[in-house]
Design goal:
There is one protein chain. The protein is mostly helical. The chain folds into 2 domains: 2-245, Growth Hormone, Chain: A; 248-324, no CATH class. The protein has helices spanning 2-6, 11-37, 54-65, 69-92, 105-125, 131-151, 161-175, 182-209, 213-236, 240-245, 248-258, 266-282, 291-300, 305-324. α3 (54-65) packs antiparallel against α4 (69-92), α4 runs antiparallel to α5 (105-125) and α4 packs parallel to α6. The longest helix is centred in the middle third of the chain and has 28 residues, at 182-209. It starts with a helix and ends with a helix.
């Protein structure tokens, strides 16, 4: 089954993630094709890749060595934008869990679409400028970071050097009758094909709509993000606001913490709820970054710092006794 091979918790989530990955790959190929085509204006435009920065690293070095500092600075800006987008993904999801849709993915999708909307708006305002390439690169870095974190680097949607390498390696293995990774091969070929097709379509879009074709890319990114929010709303039974701002995990947790639970004495209740809270939250590494919310939740069930301190003292005393024994 695909979901077992991908590590997804369900077959529906596996296919959902795969379709989203294919759409993102198409969109990256599309926006990359637009920016590389030189067709964003009738008189021609700057040709620049934005879905990856391999060329930017080389070109920045060449320009710097040749004393063309303005062009070198632009290439460095693209690198920083792409890395910056990935940094945003990391900041939004500091403790990524492979194959688990976390609350932070929804807001990150929306931020990525805002970057492409900014690129489209800037291209409308200054079609002969270059700032739009910066925002397009940032959006690609953001989406590549998200897809890589969720799939443990299986689905990389914007840059396909690694994808092509994996395709070649697996194909070589299959030629030697090792079909273990055939399912991965099909996924990777699908991603590469979607990216290629996006580049193909971008030529016709740029020829007819010029820089305005960037609005389609921004709209598609936003549409993919809204599809993700709809999926979260259906599977997690949360509101649009919760899905959009990534608060559904905390809201659900705090609600369950305040619900009556038949767990015995008040002290036992508090112990059980504290254990539940930390187990639920720490799996996403959110305890340190959300101490205020955690404190608020504990306060709602009457647990103050004095009680937590006494629990810690009991724990350390028990640990010391075990070590002494």
């Amino acid at each position: 089954m695909l979901h077992k091979e991908m590590g997804a918790p369900s077959i529906s989530e596996a296919y959902f993630v795969l379709v989203v990955g294919l759409l993102f790959a198409f969109n990256s190929g599309f926006v990359n094709g637009l920016c590389l085509s030189g067709l964003l204006t009738k008189e021609g435009s700057h040709k620049q890749a934005v879905s990856g920065v391999t060329a930017a690293y080389t070109k920045s070095g060449l320009y710097l060595a040749d004393g063309i500092f303005k062009e070198a600075g632009f290439e460095f800006s693209l690198i920083l934008a792409f890395v910056g987008g990935a940094i945003v993904s990391g900041l939004m999801t500091p403790q990524a869990i492979p194959h688990k849709l976390l609350p932070s993915y929804g807001p990150t999708f929306l931020l990525g679409s805002l970057c492409l909307f900014a690129a489209a708006w800037i291209a409308d305002d200054r079609p002969y400028g270059r700032v739009q390439y910066i925002f397009a690169a940032m959006a690609n870095g953001m989406q590549n970071g998200m897809s890589s974190m969720y799939t443990a680097n299986l689905i990389r949607t914007s840059h396909h050097t690694g994808t092509s390498t994996d395709i070649g390696v697996i194909l070589g293995q299959m030629l030697r009758r090792n079909w273990k990774n055939y399912w991965r091969f099909k996924v990777l070929v699908g991603l590469a094909s979607s990216f290629w097709f996006g580049g193909l379509i971008s030529f016709y879009a740029a020829t007819k709509y010029f820089h305005r074709a960037l609005w389609f890319s921004a709209g598609l990114f936003f549409g993919i993000g809204m599809t993700h929010l709809a999926y979260v709303m259906l599977t997690q039974k949360v509101s649009l606001v919760q899905a959009s701002f990534g608060t559904w995990k905390w809201d659900d947790l705090l609600e369950r913490m305040t619900c009556p639970m038949d767990l015995g004495s008040a002290s036992d209740l508090a112990d059980e709820q504290i254990n539940f809270t930390f187990d639920e939250v720490d799996q996403e590494g959110l305890v340190k970054s959300n101490t205020d919310k955690l404190s608020e939740g504990l306060g709602k069930i009457g647990i103050g710092m004095d009680y937590l301190k006494s629990l810690w003292q009991r724990f350390t005393k028990q640990q010391f006794s075990n070590e002494s024994a």
